[in-house]
Amino acid sequence: xxxxxxxxxxxxxxxxxxxxxxxxxxxxxxxxxxxxxxxxxxxxxxxxxxxxxxxxxxxxxxxxxxxxxxxxxxxxxxxxxxxxxxxxxxxxxxxxxxxxxxxxxxxxxxxxxxxxxxxxxxxxxxxxxxxxxxxxxxxxxxxxxxxxxxxxxxxxxxxxxxxxxxxxxxxxxxxxxxxxxxxxxxxx
Amino acid sequence: xxxxxxxxxxxxxxxxxxxxxxxxxxxxxxxxxxxxxxxxxxxxxxxxxxxxxxxxxxxxxxxxxxxxxxxxxxxxxxxxxxxxxxxxxxxxxxxxxxxxxxxxxxxxxxxxxxxxxxxxxxxxxxxxxxxxxxxxxxxxxxxxxxxxxxxxxxxxxxxxxxxxxxxxxxxxxxxxxxxxxxxxxxxx
DNA sequence: GATATAGTTGACAGGTATGACAGGTTAAAT
DNA sequence: ATTTAACCTGTCATACCTGTCAACTATATC
Lengths: 188, 188
What we know:
Two copies of one chain form a homodimer.
Chain A: E1 6-7, H1 9-15, H2 20-28, E2 35-36, E3 43-46, H3 47-56, E4 71-75, H4 79-91, E5 95-99, H5 102-112, E6 116-120, H6 128-137, E7 145-150, H7 156-163, E8 167-170, H8 175-187
Parallel strand pairs in A: 4-5, 4-6, 6-7, 7-8
Antiparallel strand pairs in A: 1-3, 2-3
Chain A binds a DNA duplex through residues 8-10, 18-22, 24-25, 37, 39-43.
């Protein structure tokens, strides 16, 4: 079942540093969409509506709410691979963020809450296994899907799967392969 | 849930002995980051941004606000250094988060919004210069203070300063040195 | 040292959204 | 079933917004 994620006025108020009365007034004015419960008239705000409202008013969006299901983080530095990957991912409707090193990847992981991460295993200075380990050991990242771009036919392939990778793509050019696997993983 | 701690223009003005009109002008000029409420256009200033602004202009930081941003991120993996560093930092009242690699450091930087970061320059697999570059080039991280633990008497020391480090500590043991410099940077 | 000039700040006024409070009710937790 | 905690409504004082103008500060020039 699809669990509807909603907020109360109090929660919304705390998220934007405001009194709950003010949130109710925003709703009354029609600036923020919400529905009412029959009993006391409690307001419930769908997270999507709330995030949209925050964006419309250029207010900061709390990272735990930003979870956009089509956001993908690509960790790669080779310009060719980066460009090809971005294009392939955008073609299947993804919102792509690119990181060139582990640190930036980390900031984007925590800041943008992507649903999926693509790691170029050949990237020097990046330990993909370490990253995967960390993701799998943290509940807040445990269900981020991970696709690894790794040379075909090596024993590493099995290592990646054991470490928790959701899919492997045999190196570079196969942009259609990447796109297909990402699409599949995001649709489940 | 992440509760947003924010200030109004009036509060910010009182904190730095200034007219609220002036605070608004700082915001309009882009010197102080803030967002607006949809109604009357009230400004809300995140405490971290405000403290960063105060530090950037060497204005005194009120203790009750400094307490809110005493969070420090320690990037190190050597167990001895990690333990010593954590202890030293806690002794000067810091709230310490430890990362063992760049990726984790990135997630903590974006997730915990530390006011200061300590980087062990000897950590293999970590390019501190790259991290520093990234911090300095992003407005949201630009006023995070950075202390580097680097071997004394090398030409690297100057490179670190040029790259934007706020202070250097000559390698390991000198825990009192680390604590003192961190304390200084957080209090100015 | 005195004067001119540009830029920043503070004061004031009119308008209005926001926060605080109180009394009542229900949703949620146990 | 009971208790606790959070939400609702209405009202009022407060604090914030905008715009304008005078006062102040810093810098440059004579």
